Amino acid sequence: MDEHFLLHTKQARALYHDQVGALPIIDFHNHLSPKDIAENRQFNNLTELWLEGDHYKWRVMRWHGVPEKYCTGNASPEEKFMAWAEVVPATVRNPLFHWTHLELQRYFGIRGLLNASNAFAIYQQANEMLHDPAFFAQGLLSGKHVEVICTTDDPIDTLQYHRLWAGSNNTFKMYPTFRPDNIYRLADAEAYNKYIDALAGSAGITIASYDQLLMAIATRVEYFHLHGCRIADHGLEQLSYQPSSEALAAQIFGRIRSGQTISREEQQHLRSSLLLFLCQQYQTHGWVQQFHLGAQRNNNAAMLWQLGADAGFDSMGDGRQAAGMASFFNELNNRNALAKTILYNINPSDNEVFATMCGNFNVDKTPGYFQWGAAWWFNDQKEGIEGHLNTLSNQGILSDFVGMVTDSRSLMSFPRHEYFRRILCNLLGDEMNRGEIPNDVDYIGKLLKQICYDNAVNYFPWPHMNKK
Q: Would you identify the CATH topology of the domain 137-465?
């Protein structure tokens, strides 16, 4: 992993080193803790910083037979790190092998291959460095030239840490993202009503009717907007559109609000109505909406009960996506309520479906108005990124792509932007070398600068740039 890592031609090296390698980072989708950032968290040890909450690592540790106590259990931080170090050599050809060593190098200057024999020395060396403010939460981001980050936040969040951050003298911007999945998570009536009660409290509105629910949603969208939010995000297994009416949605909401379980068909009606209302709110406020589709979550019921969600027991779904997406976005378009949109798929077999869907709704719009987002989750490795870039190039316009995101809970995940940029430069550099695209570093470099930075600056209505 020297300076030319993943860069196999002279053109690729020139593109990366001279054109995009040093560009700032705009990470418009992640799951970082606003509290950790605003309070400038100091980490007690490398396990806290590197393994805490990282279900990518937990997943391969379990795969390799590591007992759960070393993943999420009561083993000591040192024991957990040693268990991870023993697994790392087995991850060759898994993206974690690359990410692990990039992160050790880029943050700590540690260039050896992590394994059981050197794990204790690396653990001690890194722990000593964590006393330096450069390794506190804010320093870790500033040191990677991060310019903007967008966290993922529930509508009931007070945004107290975003407010604290906005009022401080800081080197980068942190904005919330509106993630309203709980507003239309309807399968469990008891859990849903508990959430709606919390939503009512945060909005200061009694929610006994569907109209009051919509009023509460609009109130929270406005609150998020006033605190810098310009992006909404949704995680759905499928975007299944079911035409409905306000009267039917109100009737179904009344039933679930009274504690009754509603049928799957009724859930689809109510969910579709709520999503249409939400998306109209986004368009009114000039936001960008994101849809992460296709994950089959919480497959291991026993571990869901033990650990909760987001613990490494999700996988790709194989549900049909095209018809529901087309119907839903067509309805928004007919209502003149289609905001800027980014789609993400988790199953690479849907690449062409998603890429071609994005070409349907760009009439009389700005460049890349409706677009296909970065290779997501199980796809954000070399082959997945290359597959995404190739499909996007074949079916759309690569130069309008808004680029990579970490989609991570870890402050040490930002070398993923470097990883993406190297793969991108290598892909186009190889084609330059073969004479398939112009062998002109400045010409191709301009395109890559747009993908890695400029498009994200221009696409999103960033408050600090006075974009409305």
A: TIM Barrel (3.20.20)
